[in-house]
Design goal:
mainly alpha; 7 helices; 67% helix
Amino acid sequence: MQNKWRTYGGITLILILFAYIIYVQFNYQVHTQQEAQERQEMEQLLRSKEKQIEFYFKKANELISTNQKLEMKIDSIDGGEIMELDDQLVSEVIDSREYKEIMAKYEEHYGILDKVFIPENETLGGLRFKVKESIAAGYDLLPKYYGITNALMWMDTKEFKELNNIFKEHFGDVIPTEEIYGTFEELDDIVNKSVKEGKNLLPEYYGYGRNG
């Protein structure tokens, strides 16, 4: 009888172990599927945002082109000369006095902009208009126009300043820009997540403020 109970006990233990293994495998598969789904959703979101930026840039340039043609007509009526350089690509006039003057105005308000951030299809006239518009608005509009992702390049934008105000309102301090890297989209997500959870998640996300 004792051997019989030992046999039953052994079988029961094996069944429990087997059920545990199945449970662990099931949870692992569910977790893996969730991660794959989240990764796919993130990729779709990024592709969607890239298309939005491309569409925004195209529409903005169409508007700028229309505006420039109108200004050209007014100038021609007044006997003024049309600047032929405005129709040329920035990459073709990088050493021109006109380009340097435009960038000097931009740098006066928002600092240095590396030419690598200027799209290849941007014209001098388009750049001139965007810089002029940025100065008039009081915010740097070039990061949004050109689809710049670097978070530090967004520091003078309206979006960054609004995000900074939200962070300060909830955590009593400004965003530590000396610790920030990556994209503005990542920064925006982590700040909003911090507000939602009621905890400053920036040190954990960016890896600063750790002892040792």
